[in-house]
Amino acid sequence: MGRTDRAAGSSPAPWIGLAGGCWAANAVLGASVGAGLVHTGRFRWIHHALYIATTTTTALATVRAACSATAPGRAAARALAPALLPLAALPHLGTPAQGHPRRHALAALSAAPFYAAALFRARAARAG
After folding, report:
1. Residue 98 lies in a domain
2. Per-residue model confidence as pLDDT tens digits over 83-117
3. Domains of the chain: total
4. What are the pLDDT digits (tens) for 3-60?
5. Cβ(107)–Cβ(90) below 8 Å
6. Three-class DSSP labels, 97-108
7. Is residue 4 part of a domain?
8. How far apart are CA 64 and CA 58, in angstroms?
């Protein structure tokens, strides 16, 4: 039989860390472009690719944590799941190119506390 998420030693921490890393990379790139420090020009797709990676890894990490054998692992899923809401709303809130840089940035940054809380809980799951 194959190993499942409920197997001993399974931890959602690496997946939540990956999702948080994707979010952080995308936030840094977006802020750098917004501040004029980086000009992506023809490579604007990089920000969009990072957004897709962030959303996908966040959803995957949430599911994997929800299937955790430990209570802290499942708590990490509950902490991370709300991050999917601002990520889902971002395409509908307008972009800086459409004249909504502040709204876009605030929506993207509103996911940060959920990543932080999920990482904290996932580390507790890994330790316990």
Report:
1. yes
2. 999 999 998 988 777 788 889 999 999 999 999 99
3. 1
4. 444 444 478 899 999 999 999 999 999 999 988 999 988 888 999 999 999 999 999 9
5. yes
6. HHCCHHHHHHHH
7. no
8. 10
